[in-house]
Amino acid sequence: MSEPDVTIIGAGLAGSEAALQLAKRGYRVRLLEQKPAQRTPAQSSGDFAEMVCSNSFRGAALTNAVGLLKEEMRRMGSEVMEAAAQTKVPAGGALAVDREKFAAEMTRRLRQHELIEIVEGEVKEIPSARPLLIATGPLTGDKLAKELEELVGGGLAYYDAIAPIIDAESINMEKAFFASRWDKGETEEEKTAYINCPFTKDEYQAFVKALVDAEKVEPNQFEKVKYFEGCLPIEVMAERGEKTLSFGPMKPSGITDPKTGRWPAAVVQLRKEDEAGTAYNLVGFQTRMKWGEQKRVLKMIPGLENAEFLRFGAVHRNTFLNAPQCVDQTWQLKSAPGVYLAGQIIGTEGYVEAAAGGWLAAHFIAARLSGVEPSLPPEHTAHAGLLRQTSRHEDDYQPSNITFAHLSPWEGPRLKKRAKYEAMAERALAALEGWQPAAVVSS
Description:
About 30% of the residues lie in helices and about 15% in strands. By secondary structure, it is an alpha/beta fold.
């Protein structure tokens, strides 16, 4: 092949989708991938687009945000969704695939496309070719990660400390209350930024014991973590002593319970996750508890007895950029024009999100190669939600799966949750119907 139009590092879900989308549009792609010669500790196959952790693309219903994202991907011609449809296996309300067949099909598509050149071997330094898409995933090699960190000026993290996210409508506000510490909030938005769940002494002691006794996920060998003191799992703090949490993320000082007029024995703060306040995350509650245990133990928090979890907490080895700090709205590095990122390295957590990110990156790159500025996906779509997720919370950015909290708020009539999500999905698909991506070269 002659010199490529685009160079891509990484043939995971994001890189594979991007390579195929660009090739379909007539661009020559050089795909740099260390497999099959070398693998990360998480990988077991020599094929591309390997699904390492499970065989599931998660819920299929449009009342799930990830279900909506998949439907948008299908309508936008996603190669990953086509391959998934060819290799799917029964999974109830989810989309699951035969992992080996899926990876083999994606590998076949990449290897057989005449406009894709695959170069095998580990990439240890950032190529000078532009445009360049980096889609190396959460286990980016140390040397490449170091170069990337230098390129972005240090905006790279190495441990993914994710706090759970709760559906706001499931919080019992008869027990919980809005307040900022020391009553610092002045505007209405500031006053509703935090929901507080107060504990009595007995409730706090029972909660700490439950944290200590709960079943935890054991890290994989390659995930052996030396925790940062600033992001310790809550159960690790609980094991250090009964009072540790009440002097840490559950510190009650400066928060007055309006029902008692006093500070509680301890408090869990929930911070607004989206502008409309449809979801809140548990501040400082990164955890290694198993998901079933998280649901059981965290429902002991006063006000969260009926909590619906949009995302569970986790702590695991990861490599990801502080996206709001480092990239523009088209995922191009602010410090290096022509260098784009997509997938888990930019914080779009999950197989589906990574593949959707690959499509978006290909769209942005293809538009600029054709001499026009790329159009952004319509505001109400799940794809716009991915962009929205990577542009907020610069001071506390964490990777995340897609949720309805990432979509623009529902401003129609008040609906029950399921009906609201159905309406938001209909709105998104209607908006997508009228979207005309920027002109690109025809294949």
